[in-house]
Amino acid sequence: MRFNKLDLNLLVALDALLTERNISRAGQRIHLSQPATSNALARLRDYFQDELLIPHGRQLLLSSRAQELIAPVREILMRIDSTIATQPQFDPTDTMRKFVLLMSDFSAAVFVPALIERLYNEAPGICLDLRLLNERPLEQLEENEVDLLIIPSQYVSEHHPSTPLFQEVYMCVTWESNTRIQNELSFDDYVESGHVAGSYSVNNTKAPAFDSWFLERFGVKRRVEVSAPTLSALPQMVIGTNRIATVHRRIALQAAKTLPVRLWTPPIDIPTMIQTLQWHKHRDTDPALQWLRQQALKVGGAI
Question: Between 260 and 210, whose confidence is greater?
Answer without folding.
Answer: 260
